[in-house]
Amino acid sequence: MTLKTLNLNAFKPVWLMGLIPPVLFLLWWDHEAVKGGANALAFVSLAQVGQALIDMFATGELGLSYGSSLGRALSGLLIGGGIGTLVGIAMGLSKPIEWAASPIYNSFRQVPILGWLPLIGLWFGSGDLSKLIIVALSAFYPTVLYTFEGLKQVEARLLDVARVYRLSGWQTFWRIQWPAALPSIFTGLFQALAFTWISTIGVELLFSSGAGLGAMMQQAQLQARLDIVLVCILFVGLTGFAINFLIKRLSQHVLSWRSIRA
Amino acid sequence: MDYVPHSQIPGHKIKQTGAVSLKGIKKQFNFKDRELKVLSEFSLDVQPGEFVSIVGPSGCGKSTLLRLIAGLDDTYDGTIALDGQRVAGTSLERGLVFQDHRLFPWMTLEDNIALALTNRQISKDAKAKLVADHIALVGLKGFEKAFPHQLSGGMAQRAAIARSLVNEPKVLLLDEPFGALDALTRVHLQGELQRIWLAQGSTMIMITHDVEEALYLGDRVVVMQANPGRITHTVDVNLPHPRDRASPVLHKLKDEILAELTNVPEPSNPIVRLIKGDDQ
Amino acid sequence: MKPDLKLILSVGSPLLLLIVWQAVTAFKLFPPEVLVSPTAVIAAFGEVITTGELQRHLSESLTRLAGGFTTGASLGLLFGLALALSKTVERVFGPTFQALRQVPVLAFIPMLILLLGIDEVFKIVIIAKAAFFPVALAAYDSVKGVPKSYFEVSSLYRAPWWVLISKILIPATIPNILAGVRLSLTRSWLVLVAAELIVADSGLGQMMEMGRQMFRLDIVMVGVIVAGVIGFALDRLFQLLQAHALRWKTA
Hints:
A: MetI-like fold, elongated, disordered C terminus, C: mainly alpha, MetI-like fold, 11 helices, globular
């Protein structure tokens, strides 16, 4: 909705009004930086940030960190989302499994995702494996929930049709329940994608050994290199933006027949 | 137009199979520790190839009855038999058309109809031919690749009828098939159903609350009352098919049935009665 | 009466998990640095309570949460309303708001540490930021989403503006705004625990991080459980408030 508004206004001068706050902010920032004084350590000039960006590009440091963060997020999505979908299917199709699994699922889900990190760190060290587990877990929760809900919400009237035509359990699942639940499953995966990006940055900040944007930021912070930190924030933000944009586009596409119920 | 008895129409196949026999059907729901009698001692014999309409007020158990015949619900007393064979569970011999079309939005019209043939042990080509024939039968040629949301309500219901007929069931059960359509489409599809029935010749049992529709289509009209659901009487409609809506005989019968159905002391709704607590 | 399978399974499965856990530790299948028994966790729980450690950390965390969440949520509400009601505000601040919203809150932690240090201000600001966006977005969306017909009805009956606000705008938007506030409460708790883990000087997160560094698995597990219980309790509490505020909806 809002993205659309932005696009529509792209060629109208009113759009320029949106530039006022960031431009004023940057001018003030640059002024503080150039002025020096008490906060000189903190404020870096825009020229410095630009130089940092160029340097990080040139050394390949940025590409490496960005690539490993993105790789972590996507493999977490694949693993957590895959397992989550299977668990969601099992819970959605079998009442006994639902009854047995949901209290465990619901109690584990209460723990803030990064709160698991000290425990996982003790078990698996503070390397890539621990990070991947947390990122996968952040994809696991929403996919389980949305797969399960999607299957639960398949209406009894549609299942009656399957019974009238004597479809087997597998046929009913594959031809009716799965496609009926698909919009909800995709919603879960989209949410998982957004979550994995956030948790990737989080785990990299906490376990800052190894590659990754979060780790790079954390190292830069320890060396008081605000320029590098800002470049990282820029890339984290742009990726977040791209993910949200992608989700919006894909949902419109995938959910196109959602409003048209049987 | 001259009336021709349907047995003499060349296209109408008189079938030897498709006799439905209902004997002493009793059905009740347990509702908050109270028993709610939905059907009581319901008995009815339907001849092969016969069109029977069942009318009655809402809550008289007519939809429940159809679910029992279809095999979607097995908890009842009494016997339901098709050609002398007691029914158990659903079967491709008994087709069912719901009030809402219940086509699957992610399948094309063709795929929706082919779904009904999933477990028929016939060749792929034979299946394709059956699907094409039945699409033609309901007059939807050219819409094979359309998705349900691209069809009008009337077209979707025709597709649902095609899906239920594609297995060539011995008996077709219709649960208020035109109840969700606008008045003009309904009249049109009633004519279409009559044409299909004449061409196809299977036994049909249709539930409706539209007395005119029941009389226009049925060889016999069964009138039901609620609390508990039972037959109050049966009306034979001795008019040949296809019929003329303006027939004075139909009008007279309609007035009689309507008079009976509307002359019911309130409350007629069993749930309301139950809550008021005046159920014996 | 036949046994209730649902009850058996839903109580039985967590119980079974506990029994297996206890059994595995009883047979010493794993060294104690890797897995401690449930009873050891309970003992550690008793320990941190008697020393007052848990209460101290928890009260610090909750005070921070209260400060950051209240600031962030109320600023978010005001900003969201202004954004929805004024075209100028929307034009000037809308794009910046939409852009900043895309950056995960956690990514701001290193920058805020450099700018604000690791003191209390930093933690309040980061929680406030986490709380700000969901509320602002919910307020903006729900005011924008009030059906036009509602305004038409009110103008049809010549309702004065205060009636419009009190009888139409507030009831129509409050459910979504409250949902946004609830989401922001959950987010704040998540970000708080993360921030305390990163900048470990006090609070529940620090208790866990210290436990990890000293290989005290039992204390880490106590932290995990307490973090979960507090998150759950906060959400439940808010849900009750929400239900109370919206009781007209179902009535």
